[in-house]
Amino acid sequence: MNDLSETGLILKVQGLGKHYPSFDLHDIDFDLPQGYIMGFIGPNGAGKTTTIKSILGLIRPDQGQVTLFASINPAAPPETPQSCLAKHSRIGVVMDRPLYNEDWTVRQIARVLAPFYPKWDDQKFQQYISRFALSPDKKLKELSRGMQVKLQLAVALSHHADLLILDEPTSGLDPVARDEICDLLCEFVSDPHKSVLFSTHITADLEKIADYLTFILNGRMVYSGSKDDLLEKYVRVAGGLDDLTPQQQALIIGYRAYSSGFEGMCLASHLQQLPRQLLTEPVTLDELIVYMHKGEAQHA
C-alpha cells in the first residue's frame, strides 16, 4: 500500500512469521490506515487467525513486529507495560464465538468486563443492547448465534475502541443480521480516526464495505492494497477446450476443464495474448480466492 505517507496508521504488521510443526506463517506485511475497513481474506488454514492472534498478543510470533496506533511523523516514546495495556484497551474484538461464561447474563457480562476498560461507557452499552434488542437478563447460552455476535459488538463499541478486529463473526448468520453488522461497521469508520480489520469467508460483505484487502494463502502474502485495484487486476475467462495453445493455457490461473470447455482467471494485462473469442467478465472475491488456491495447488 503506497498511498499512506501522510496518513496515521492504526495498525502496522511487518515481517510477521510463526512456525508450527505442520504450518508456517511467512513475512506478513500490511498497513491499516485510520478511517478504513480492511478485509482479511484467504481459505481455511491460510494463517489469518494466527496473524490476528499475533496482533492481539495471544501468541508470540517468531519474527516480525506489530505496531498499534502509530503515527507516520511523530516519534513514539518507549513502550511501557502501562502503555501496552492502554493500547490494547483501544481494541474491540469480535470472535466467531464469545469467550464469556455461558451462564452469565448480558448484564453480568458488562459488570465483569467494565473494570478492564478505562473508557467503559455503561450508558453507551445500554444504548447498544437496546438497539440490538438484547435482554439484560438473558444468559449467553440462551442467545442465538446472531445475538451473541451483537453482544460482542455492544461490548467492543462501549469502551470507545479505535480499532475493531473481527475474526469470522458473520459465518452462519442470515443475510439480514450480516447486513446490520456491515452497516454498523460503516457507521463506526465514519469517524476518521477509527478502523476495522475484518476477517471473513463471506466475501460478498467485503465487496460491499471494504476499502482495502489483505489476502494470504498457505501462510504467505498474496496481496495487500486497494480492493478495487485487486478486482480490476484479474478477469474471469471461459472458452472451448481447443481455444488455447499450451502457452496460452499457462496464463490461466486455476484452469479448470469441463467436457464443454474451460474456465479460470488471468491477469487483465494478459488478455491481449489470449484469443478474442473467449468470454470474459469481472471476477468476484470468491472466485479470486478459489482460482488462486487452485492455481497454487496446480503448481505445487
Question: What does this molecule look like?
Answer:
There is one protein chain. By secondary structure, the chain is an alpha/beta fold. The chain has a domain at 231-299. 31% of the residues lie in helices and 28% in strands. It is built from 10 helices and 13 strands. The strands form 3 sheets. The protein has a 6-stranded mixed beta sheet, with helices on both faces. Strands 11-12-10-13 form a 4-stranded antiparallel beta sheet. Strands 2-1-4 form a 3-stranded antiparallel beta sheet, covered by helices on one side. Helix 4 (122-131) runs antiparallel to helix 5 (145-157).
Main beta-sheet annotation: 6 strands, mixed
Assembly status: single chain
- Helix run count: 10
Mean pLDDT: 89
Strand order of the largest sheet: 5-6-7-3-8-9
Low-confidence stretches: 1-6, 71-85
Distance between the ends: 28 Å
Q: Tell me the series of helices and strands, N- to C-terminal.
A: EEEHEHEHHHEHEHEEHEHEEEH
The fraction of residues assigned to DSSP E strands is 25-35%
Question: What's the helix and strand layout?
Answer:
Elements: E1 9-20, E2 23-33, E3 37-41, H1 48-55, E4 63-68, H2 81-88, E5 91-94, H3 106-113, H4 122-131, H5 145-157, E6 163-167, H6 175-188, E7 195-199, H7 203-209, E8 212-217, E9 220-226, H8 227-233, E10 234-239, H9 246-249, E11 253-258, E12 261-267, E13 279-282, H10 285-299
